[in-house]
Structures are given as structure tokens and as C-alpha cells.
Design a protein that fits this description.
Layout lengths: L1 H23 L2 H29 L11 H26 L8 H11 L7 H10 L6 H29 L3 H19 L10 H23 L12 H10 L17 H4 L8 H22 L26 H17 L14 H10 L5 H11 L6 H15 L1 H12 L4
Length: about 400
């Protein structure tokens, strides 16, 4: 619970700083600082997504058993996304925005923040609550990873909506397909060091590769470079890396080799690894807050395309923003109730409801989506409401776990 509160406070602190620092620095200095904040943010996000990949494991001898889980996870991610996106348009935006495709595209991208469950926060909180051996934990583990993966894949059609269909996007789709094949074919088989220092190095390498590719292709077409977000490459790398403690795959027969476990290069001091991961996740939260634009906006038209933009919504007072945050938080969690209607043969209704509540926590991946949205110049009250809703969900995570324990307390 302390970690969740810490993350929330750091995110708020970064957001507050983002409102004052631009006025304390020259425009050139703030622009330079913002560039380095962006690079640090996506590096920390890559580190986090590598760890999400570490947690991903499937029994490849029985792939069909995951079909229902994949559908449930995708549905549980889609409903909050659609509900929040519709709220951004039909409630927060004036009527003249309702039929504007530009506003819809930006709203749909901003709404993705509500789709992914925070796998890291959920797993650690359930384990700390003594629920690690329950059906709920095992099922939530699969669903949370699947809906994070779904969000990563969802970013491709989002890009197509924002940029239009370009040959560069076709290349990106092919590259994504190849990465997913790598993740499945070589699941946890690559024997390389996986201590936190090494993972930081891998994250830096991913950022250098993706940013380098973007820069080189921008020389060919500055309008639509080949830009690959770090989410998928980092997740795939985490899937491919062999990490002691995971269930062995069919390709990794000596996974429990004691010599491998004693190799200090793998960084298996669990307390050190946990502290490092917590520090980097905490830094990521500050960086996400710092990446946020100034709160507010002015309702004006844009001359270049004549379309309405979410950044042009009228300025809102904090009271109205608070009401929107509450509404968006309720909608995003209501959309996550899909698992309560599934798995009727596996668990009673109280455990299925508890599983749905377990999908409510949001965190690093949702924050990462907001950072990506900012890269497409989506700003204004919508982004502010999305970020504050994410913070509210983080703060309430401890309460969610209490509800879960009470729901399944009759059997556990």
C-alpha cells in the first residue's frame, strides 16, 4: 500500500512541477529539458515493459485454453476505452466537436489510458494480501498480461487513425508481427543476464534503436517516419529472456540449473531487484507528471486543417475537472466488470466479481499511453482528467484489495 501511495504522490508532484517549471525557464531551455525528460520517460517505460514480459508465460502445448482468456481480456480493455472516449466527446466537448473526426481520433487515443490493468501493482498487492495461491490470482495474472498486450497492439490502429494509412505503417505492422512471433517461438529461452542493471541497459538499447530508426526514416519523410513505440519491443524482449524462477519452456530444459541461479550476473538478490524496480517505477511516475502540458486550453480553430482539437476545449475550473475525474474513473472501472460475467464453470459469482475488481488498478502502462498521446500533440483538459483519473485509481488500489478479500473471504 505504501508503494501505491508513493507512486500516486510522485505522479502528482511531477504534474505540479510541470505547471511551474516552464515559467521558470526560457523557452529554449525548457524545450531542451523536455526532450531529455521524454527520453528518460520512455527508457523507464521500456524497463517496466521488459518486466511485464518477464511475467508472461503460457503452456504452448495447450494454446487453446487461453482463447477465452484472450477474448475476456480484450473485451475488458475495450469497454473502458470506448466508454471513456465517448465521455470525452459527448460530455466534455461542446456539441460542435461531436461530428468532427479529428476530435474523435484524439479522444479515442486519449481514452486508451483506461484500458490496461497495472499488472505490476495488481500482482504485488494480491501477493501481499495473501492471495497468491488463489484461483483469482492465477486468472488475474493471465488477464492483466493479456490486456496489456492488447493495448500494445491497439496502438497500431490508433496510429493509422491519427496519421492515415501510410506505407511506413505497413512496415511497422510487419515488424510487430515478427516481434510477436519471436515472443511466442522463443518464450523465455535466451540465457543472458537479467539483473536490474542489465535490464536498464536493454531498455536504453531499445530507446536508442527506436529513436534512431525514427530519426533516420524522418530524413526520408519528415511527416511520417517509421516510429515504433517502446511498448512492444520491450515486452517482447522480456518474453524472450530466460529468467530463473519462471516455469521452464519446452526449449529450456535446464532452467532450474543451480549454477545458473548462483551466477551473480543475473542479479538474483530479490530485495535489491525489488528496490531497483521500485525506484525506476517511481522515477517513471515523476517523469510522466513532468511530461504533462499546462492545464487548460482556449476554444479556437486551427488554421492548418480547420478541424477541432481536444487541446482547444474551453478552460475548466478545478471543480468541474474533479467531477469529470470521478465520472471517468467510474466508467473506466465499470468497463472492467466483464470477467464477472464469465468463468461460470470455474468459480462462484463472488470470486468472479472479485476478479473483475482486481482488474481495476491502473498504473505504469496507462501512464505510458498518455505519454505517447502527448507525442501526437494531444493536450488540454482531456489529458488532465485522464491523468488525474489514473492517480485516483492508484490511490484506491488498497481499497480494491480490501473489497476483493471480503468478496472471497467465505472460501479463503
Amino acid at each position: 500500500m505504501k508503494k501505491v501511495l508513493l507512486f500516486s504522490l510522485l505522479l502528482i508532484g511531477g504534474l505540479v512541477a510541470s505547471q511551474f517549471l516552464p515559467g521558470m525557464m526560457s523557452k529554449a531551455a525548457w524545450g531542451h529539458a523536455s526532450h531529455w525528460v521524454h527520453l528518460a520517460t520512455i527508457t523507464a517505460l521500456a524497463f517496466i515493459m521488459i518486466h511485464v514480459g518477464f511475467e508472461f508465460d503460457i503452456d504452448k502445448s495447450k494454446p487453446g485454453q487461453y482463447g477465452v482468456d484472450w477474448v475476456v481480456a480484450c473485451t475488458a480493455a475495450t469497454f473502458p476505452w470506448i466508454l471513456c472516449s465517448a465521455y470525452f466527446i459527448f460530455v466534455m466537448a461542446p456539441r460542435e466537436f461531436w461530428g468532427d473526426w479529428t476530435a474523435w481520433k484524439e479522444s479515442l487515443l486519449a481514452g486508451v489510458f483506461s484500458a490496461p490493468t497495472s499488472a505490476g501493482v495488481l500482482f504485488s498487492m494480491l501477493a501481499a494480501a495473501g492471495l497468491g495461491a488463489t484461483w483469482l490470482f492465477k486468472k488475474a495474472r493471465v488477464l492483466a498480461i493479456f490486456d496489456d498486450l492488447f493495448v500494445v497492439l491497439l496502438m497500431i490502429p490508433m496510429k493509422m487513425m491519427i496519421l492515415g494509412f501510410k506505407w511506413q505503417l505497413a512496415v511497422i505492422v510487419l515488424m510487430m508481427g515478427f516481434q510477436l512471433w519471436l515472443a511466442y517461438r522463443f518464450l523465455h529461452v535466451l540465457k543472458v543476464p537479467t539483473g536490474w542493471r542489465w535490464v536498464v541497459g536493454y531498455a536504453v538499447g531499445i530507446v536508442v534503436a527506436t529513436e534512431g530508426l525514427r530519426y533516420l526514416t524522418s530524413l526520408i519523410n519528415a511527416q511520417v517516419p517509421i516510429q515504433i513505440e517502446v511498448l512492444l519491443p520491450a515486452f517482447v524482449l522480456g518474453c524472450v529472456l530466460a529468467r530463473p524462477g519462471h516455469t521452464p519452456s519446452e526449449h529450456y530444459e535446464d532452467f532450474d540449473d543451480p549454477d545458473l541461479d548462483l551466477d551473480p550476473s543475473h542479479g538474483h538478490d530479490d530485495s535489491t531487484e525489488a528496490r531497483a524496480a521500485t525506484f525506476i517505477s517511481a522515477a517513471f511516475m515523476v517523469l510522466v507528471g513532468l511530461s504533462m502540458p499546462m492545464i487548460g486550453g482556449v476554444a479556437t480553430k486551427v488554421a492548418d486543417d480547420g478541424g477541432d482539437h481536444l487541446s482547444e476545449l474551453p478552460t475548466m475550473g478545478w471543480g468541474m475537472i474533479a467531477l469529470h475525474v470521478i465520472a471517468v474513473t467510474v466508467l473506466s472501472n465499470l468497463g472492467k466488470m466483464v470477467p464477472a460475467m464469465c468463468y461460470r464453470r470455474e468459480a462462484p459469482v463472488n470470486e468472479r466479481i472479485a476478479l473483475a475488481v482486481g482488474m481495476w488498478p491502473r498504473g505504469e502502462v496507462g501512464a505510458g499511453v498518455l505519454v505517447i498521446a502527448l507525442g501526437y500533440d494531444i493536450t488540454g483538459p482531456v489529458v488532465t482528467v485522464a491523468l488525474l483519473s489514473l492517480i485516483v485509481n492508484l490511490v484506491l488500489t488498497g481499497g480494491f484489495i480490501v473489497v476483493i478479500k471480503r468478496l472471497i473471504g467465505t472460501r479463503h
